[in-house]
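Per your request, structure below.
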């Protein structure tokens, strides 16, 4: 069972980071390369505890659907999405946000999954899937970081203007 762990420092408040990570619209923007789009459940806006989304995407040249549900959430500290239906045997994806300072947050991303097909799935993980998912998640997290930092700068600029 591979576990992919990533950590990013984002120059933005915890709430902005939390909301960026659970935004369906931002998810679609960040995964444009795989043509990922929400086709069922929550299809835009911010997903909440107990809600699910069905994604359609092209991975390895194959159109696939995957449904994930938000199974845990403590706003703005963390949320967990878990696969309900899809190509994995299972996955649990934890998104955690730790305050480092007034305008700084550490985002932890932990993707714990199992592939189907027994030993064939394990070999596929080792040869291809783990590296593929690491790149996929890194690209998405870098996009979240970029958007959250831009939003934080915009809000700081507005706050400075209102003080003048």
């Amino acid at each position: 069972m591979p576990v992919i762990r990533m950590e990013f420092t984002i120059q933005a408040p915890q709430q902005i980071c939390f909301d960026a990570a659970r935004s369906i619209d931002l998810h679609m923007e960040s995964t444009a390369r795989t043509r990922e789009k929400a086709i069922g459940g929550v299809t835009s806006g911010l997903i909440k505890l107990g809600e699910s989304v069905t994604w359609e995407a092209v991975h390895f040249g194959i159109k696939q659907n995957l449904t994930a549900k938000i199974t845990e959430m403590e706003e703005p500290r963390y949320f967990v999405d878990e696969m309900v239906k899809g190509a994995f045997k299972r996955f649990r994806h934890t998104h955690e946000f730790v305050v480092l300072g007034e305008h700084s947050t550490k985002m932890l991303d932990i993707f714990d999954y199992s592939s189907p097909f027994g030993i064939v799935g394990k070999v596929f993980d080792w040869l291809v899937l783990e590296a593929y998912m690491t790149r996929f998640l890194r690209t998405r997290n870098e996009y979240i970081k970029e958007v959250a930092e831009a939003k934080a700068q915009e809000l700081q600029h507005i706050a400075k203007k209102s003080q003048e």
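Strands lie at 3-10, 37-41, 52-59, 62-74, 78-85, 90-101, 104-114.

Regards,
D.
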